[in-house]
Amino acid sequence: IKEAINIDPFSCIGLFGSRVSGGAKKDSDWDVFIITAKKKNMEKIGAKFPYAKNIHFEVFSIDEFEDNLVAREDTVVKHIVRNKQILFNPYPFYNIINNWEMVKYAPTQ
Predict the structure, then answer these.
(1) Burial class (CB in 10 A: 0-12, 13-18, 19+), 56
(2) What CATH code would you report for 2-104?
């Protein structure tokens, strides 16, 4: 987490998947999501930990996260929305959700 915060102190970092839902086994991996304005730099974070084989990073720009949220098909983002534990800076996540709900429930003319 510290490495990600050094890259973008305004990013949102959290866990999702079986470790959060309670279905994890002893050898289950850790699924980490990051929402950031510095996606290119953040995507390199996994390479800094070559021996951490059981950590899986999903890095999203804010636009990508929003696009995946409104996509018709089931996406990783939709799984994250349903089943997550935010570890650092929840504000980007909840701002995206709030904006999506405002659009989703806006009156039509």
Answers:
(1) middle
(2) 3.30.460.10
